[in-house]
Amino acid sequence: MGMQTIFERPRPVLLCGLARRQPYSGRHVKIILCVVVPLLLISEAGAASDAISGQRLISASRLIDMIGVNTHLQQLDGTYGDLPKVLQLFKFLGVTRARDVMPGGNTLGIVRRMIYDKIRFNFFIPTGWEKGRTVGYLKSLEANVPGAVTSVEGYNEINNHPVEFNGRSGPAAALFGQQAIYKAIKNDDILKDKPVLDLSGFEMTEASNPEKRVTLNGYADGMNLHVYAQNGSQPGHWIREGVPDIYRSLNDHPRKAITEFGYASLPQTGWRVIGVDERSQAKGLLNGIFDAAIAGFDWIYLYELVDQRFDSSSQNRELHFGLFKYDYQPKPAAFAIRNMIDVLNDDPKLATPSVADSSDDKVNISLDREPGDIAVRSLRIRKTNGSLVVAVWRETPFWDRAKGGPLEAPGLPSKISFHKPCGSIKLYDVLESRDPTLMKSSNSMTVDVKDYVQLVECTKV
After folding, report:
1. Residue 353 to residues 63, 147, 204: CA-CA distances in angstroms?
2. If you classify domain 61-344 with CATH, what class do you get?
3. Which pLDDT band, with edges at 50, 70 and 90, does 2 fall under?
4. Contact present, 209 and 240 (Cβ < 8 Å)
5. Residues 6 or more apart from 261 whose CB is under 8 A from it?
6. pTM: predicted TM-score of the whole model, two decimal places
7. Alpha carbons 365 and 378: distance in angstroms, whole number
8. What whole-number distance in Å separates Cα of residue 24 and Cα of residue 67?
9. Residue 427's closest CA among 294, 415, 407?
10. 261-292 burial string, b = 16+ CB within 10 Å, else e?
11. What are the domain boundaries of the chain?
């Protein structure tokens, strides 16, 4: 690994630049730059009677299917070298999406084994790819296990990994290469329906001029962001609704993906990319998933599955981004995501990716006191068993950047009322358990809204 560097561009506003590590090959350091833009997503006190009626409604199966994790399967000398344990980690989480570089060498067989264990892949294309070999391998995966390839992604972080293509180099080569990738996938009978995601890092290159790209037509089916919250802050400042700043010049509005999103669980002080403790990491990752759902993202890939190696110095932030420790033990983030998926678990055979809103799906949130500048956020989730779940949280600061320690904001008492009759109401604190922490026979419940997502379920009568 190397020391992290921050590359600062002279732009007044940027949703998010790129990240940090040596994720896939070579001894590369990644870079990130983000600017805080406040976002309030729900009415504050005084408008509680219809506080959530305008909020997004999503099916539980669709929310779960958004979630993936980054892996580093080519790094066989670390934790990813034990494939049975890696598969156990996926099973523990309940996540089936993975993101990794297009495999080669020994990794070809490893990926085949993983897809037979129902892991599906978003592959990003490395520089030096060859059309015949790349398309041929992807076709073979998809032909043997339909759905194995969920999407294909362009070059990864071209600001950190310069691209050469057809005698060209730099950002121009990357754009020509991206067009070639798109064409190769769309001209193949088996792969043509697979979404192609944009390359990443274009906005962070010195020579680029992203304003000139007014469409992704011919380049990609989806926008691609890497999001790493700065200064140990909450994720909602960076995961926002609408068109991301780096795509602000587009005339079209394609789908949106966050292909890297993470927090390092190494408590630190300072500015910009700093680590937090394990509990704060869990809060940030959990909240970010729901922020992405509210903001209309189609996919979010957490960075990363497991710490790659043992950090003997306890100072290498790059070795602490995993949901699991280097010894494969789950961190609080792994428990929280597992618990959340268990609570929301749906039968995908019965579920549909979209749901129609109705008056029965309305939920009121009444606040006992003024929330100040940080509003309550919420997302409604419908399960195929007839239950309606509302996720509620506030993104108050959870990390003291100056002291390098966690912050625990007091809960905001709020009455949550469902319009539809409830067999019971259950409150789940998924950071603590997958079992309800409170249950009552009623259509309403008072909940202390915390600085991380809690789930309130109205079960079917």
Report:
1. 9, 16, 34
2. alpha beta
3. very low
4. no
5. 226, 227, 228, 235, 239, 285, 288, 292, 300, 301, 302, 303
6. 0.89
7. 9
8. 20
9. 415
10. bbbbbbbbeeeebbbbbbbbbbbbbbbbbbbb
11. 61-344, 359-458
